[in-house]
Amino acid sequence: MKMKSFNAMLLVMVIVLLTSACGAKEYKPQEINEETDKCVICNMAVKDDPYATQIITKDGQSLKFDDIGCMNEWKVQNGTETVGAEFVRDHNSGNWLKYETAYYAYDAEYVTPMAYGVIAFESQAAAQAYITEQGKGELLSSADLKNHKWEVNRDMMDMENMEMHNESMHSDDSKEEMEMGHGTEGKDS
C-alpha cells in the first residue's frame, strides 16, 4: 500500500511539474531609451511618455512605437501570430498596462504623436473622466479597438508639419543661410 501511495504521489508531482513548465510565458515591457528607440512603423523617436507602446514578440524581441496607431499598423502588416504581449502606457501615471486590460478614450481631435487620437487609461473611470474633461470623445475597450477605424487626422498632421517647418525657417541656421544668400535661387546676389 505504501508503494502505491508513493507512486501515486510521484505521478502527481511529475504532472504538476510538467504542467507548470508548459505554463504561459510572462512578458514584460522594456524601458524606453529616448536616445536610441525609434518607432518600428514611422521611424520617429519614441519618447518615454504616455503615448509609447510596445509589442514583445514570442521570441522576446521588443518592438516600440510612438503611438498606439503605429502599433496597430504593425499588427495589420504582420499579423498577431508572433505577438507574445502588447503594452500601452496609462495616460495619467505613465505606468505600463497590458493592452487587453486597458481602457481607451478616442476622438479624432485628441493630440497624439501620429494623430490617431487614441489614449490609454488604467481604468474605465479614468478614461471616462478624460472624455468628460475634454468635452468630447468615445470610450473604447481593446475589443472595441479591433473594429475601430484607424485613421490619421490629416488636418492635425498637416498643422504639426507646418509648425515644424515654421520653426525650422526661424532657426538661427536658416536665418544665417538666408543672409548668406542660400535658399534664394533665381534672385541676383
Automatic annotation (TrEMBL):
Tree of life domain: Bacteria
Q: Which parts of this chain are annotated as the region Disordered?
A: 167-189
Query: Which keywords accompany this UniProt record?
Result: Signal
**Which N-terminal stretch is annotated as signal sequence?**
1-24
Protein name per the record: Copper chaperone NosL
Source organism: Paenibacillus algorifonticola
